[in-house]
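Preliminary data (for renewal application), NAP complex.
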Amino acid sequence: MLRVGIVGATGYTGCELVRLLSGHPKVTLTVITSRQHAGTAYTDIYPAMSGRVDLVCQPQDLGRVAAETDLVFLALPHEVSMTVAGPLLAAGCKVVDLSADFRFRDAALYEDAYQPHHAPELLDRAVYGLTEVYRDGIREAQLIGNPGCYPTSVLLPLAPLVAAGLVDPAGVIADCKSGVSGAGRSPSLAVHYCEVNESFKPYKVTTHRHNPEMEAILADIAGKPASLTFVPHLVPLTRGMQSTIYAGCTGDASADRIRACLREAYQAAPFVRIRDPGDIPDVLHVRGTNFCDIGFHWDAKRSGVILMSVIDNLLKGAAGQAVQNMNIMSGFDETDGLGFIPSAL
Ligand SMILES: NC(=O)c1ccc[n+]([C@@H]2O[C@H](COP(=O)([O-])OP(=O)(O)OC[C@H]3O[C@@H](n4cnc5c(N)ncnc54)[C@H](OP(=O)(O)O)[C@@H]3O)[C@@H](O)[C@H]2O)c1
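Predicted structure:
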């Protein structure tokens, strides 16, 4: 059994990691940490897991974490992960980081969007954990920068079309909606029930930190500069993310070619489902799962494609994809621990 740990286990993505890893057939969850809840039984924080999870939160002692694990998930805020990853890697652990700290190859791009990077020497070692696109690199990786939830939902539909030269990466528009758990567990006015319930509004228009992350990866896939206009919205859902993406196409594109390209790219991908034309993806169909469902509409009049994707932000957008990456890094079946049948409601 692979020994795994979670640093920052009491947040929303940490909670999903505890749930997934506790039911995983090939791992033992040996240590979970929390600063605020050290010494507390995990089920006192999340009673839903009573009778199934028998773990007590430990202080963030990295020496102990390293001694008790082979692979560690960091479910921490950005800027914190970069200080934790180095000592764990040096002690021989593999690391899957859910924050933004290892998603950028270029430290300057990261620093422009976030803050100074304190471990830039690790960026070259990190592999971007968009599983279906970077699977070969993930297999050999010691350190994964797990993608953001918005980037996962936007890049999975675009990647094959950009790689095939069917979509122009220079003028993409992504209109995206996220459930409130995307903001994490810490309370704030913006995620107060009365501020969110029955509300629907954009935020951080073109200034969201996931914008440069998406442009950098699109450029990497295209082999040329990419430009993406990104407008995120908050919707009154606990979990779920929907992206509608508008992209201009090159002369060779057609409805048939787009469908064939998406189908071929993901025919062996167990968690990406390509919908038939006219079959609109719904967040309800991926809730609580690691799936990304992708639909498309060919706009012949404007030679453009409208892509529609849905994910669960906490699973394919975070903890589920992190476990999928661990499976690949460890030589397990990609679906181990993630193969449950979705609930229809
Ligand atoms: N929520 C999503 O949908 C989503 C999707 C993709 C990626 N992510 C990324 O995943 C990471 C975790 O997100 P989340 O939503 O789970 O956040 P969260 O609910 O706010 O949880 C953060 C966790 O980190 C710990 N923590 C906070 N500050 C810390 C510090 N200074 N030092 C050590 N531990 C600290 C907290 O526990 P203690 O305070 O008890 O230590 C808590 O367990 C973030 O980087 C986020 O951007 C989130």
